[in-house]
Amino acid sequence: MPTLFVIGLSTFFLSVNAPGDPVLRMMNLPSEGELINEGGYSQRLYLEKRKSLGLDLPLFYFSISSMAASSKWIYLKREEERILNRWYIQTGQGDSLFSLLKEINRLELKSLDEDIKLPRTQSLLLLDQLKSLKRENDWLKACEKVDDLNIFLANLNNPELKPIECHHWILANSSKFWAYIPKLNIYAFDNQFHYWLKRTIRGDLGYSYIDKKAVVPKILRALKWSLPLSVSAILITFLLSIPIGVYSAVYRAKWFDKLISTFLFLLYSIPSFWLASLIMVFLGDPDSYLYAEWFEPLGFKQINPRNSFLQNLPILLQHIWIPLFCLTYFNLAFVSRQMRASMLEVFQEDFIRTARAKGLSRHIIIWKHALKNALLPIVTLLGSVLPVAIGGSIVLEIIFSIPGMGWITVEALYARDYPVIMGVVMFSGIMTLIGYLISDILYAILDPRIRLSNPNLSAGNA
């Protein structure tokens, strides 16, 4: 549970600090400038959407700020909060700066109000000055821009556009002392992380920025493609690599060991994405001499998601073999070498010499006594391979057009669809925990001396 909490906490803060404004993304607006150009209606819609998502709440159960910071900053947009952070360090007047920012935002809305009847050219010039002011990091230069803004407002001679005066008081009462005095703020359960955690426990990871659909169903749909391929790859990898590793250790330095070692090192040196690309070019291109009619490069797209699994099974079986081979051979070479090294280490143990001294047959010594102890390091590999395999191979799924976990991850990265990205990260973290839990259970099954209830007894000490 502590590990799961840390994974959730890390995922949440990564999503919070991701570039861009989530509300603007959900409103299909590329920047805040577009929001302003749409007028006051979009501004109100933005604030309502932000409140409905809980983004006007504090981030965590508590925060540490300075005495000069204002508690009202949690209601600000991310860009506004950043500029006020720079200003209050120079002035030590958090609440007054918040009032100044409200005046600036008021002028923005007034400049777009049709009832004021401000000419379009003057309205655009006013907006440019206000944007420039909100981008100024230096407080003294910001005050100069406020003075220039007041001169511009005076020339407009519009009673609705009142000048900003509070910056003079802030400038006169500036004190950096309060900016360096820490203050602890307690928010209890009324914060963004608490509500995010409650939604996550219920299986709600938010909505995609692109199609506005829930993230969890998107991951589950992708898992339908990645899961059969990944589980098949894991089974084939371990069912083949374990006997290959055992025989390589038994016939060490013999022709079988040399031949299989050379072959496995050759497989291990071939990148899977390179081999997959060659297969696509030579077997999938009709102009190639090696063209195979049974191999369709985009065969997975022929599967109708509306059909049942049994209806799609013939097409799946026809096109799964080459992606399965590309996903399997690299792990097969690695795991079999690990199995060989583990068996050779077990052969040097005292209990193996004792078994030989008792006159036990070679078959029983290898497959009953040595194998069970040699599998412990391989079980550890299973715990680490499981989340990676189920998470999908990004490159292979792109090459073979498989709409699995790797495919939606790449799509989300290109589109900066952060809810989907964080959902995949969260899912991968949970699968890692499940993988290591399965490893711990298998430890206890393989070696009765290891008990999960005794944390002080590890596999190495058993």
Describe the structure.
The protein has 462 residues and is mainly alpha-helical. The protein folds into 2 domains: 21-201, no CATH class; 215-446, Orthogonal Bundle (MetI-like fold), CATH 1.10.3720. It is 66% helix and 2% strand. It is built from 20 helices and 2 strands. The chain has a two-stranded antiparallel ribbon with strand order 1-2. α13 runs antiparallel to α15 (321-347). The longest helix has 36 residues, at 215-250. The two termini are 26 Å apart. The relative contact order is 0.09. Mean pLDDT is 80; it is low at 457-462.
Instruction: Give the CA-based shape.
Output: elongated
| CATH class group of the largest domain | Mainly Alpha
**Proportion in β-strands:** under 5%
Strands, total number: 2
The CATH topology assignment of the largest domain is MetI-like fold
Average predicted local confidence, pLDDT: 80
- The amount of helix comes to 55-70%
- Class derived from helix and strand content: mainly alpha
Task: Kindly report the spatial arrangement of strands forming the biggest sheet.
Answer: 1-2
State the low-pLDDT regions, or none.
457-462
CATH superfamily of the largest domain: MetI-like
Largest sheet: 2 strands, antiparallel
| Element pattern in H and E | HHHHEHHHHHEHHHHHHHHHHH
Number of domains: 2
Task: Give the number of helices.
Answer: 20
Between the first and last Cα atoms, what is the distance in angstroms? 26 Å
Rounded to the nearest angstrom, the radius of gyration is 32 Å
What is the CATH architecture descriptor of the largest domain? Orthogonal Bundle
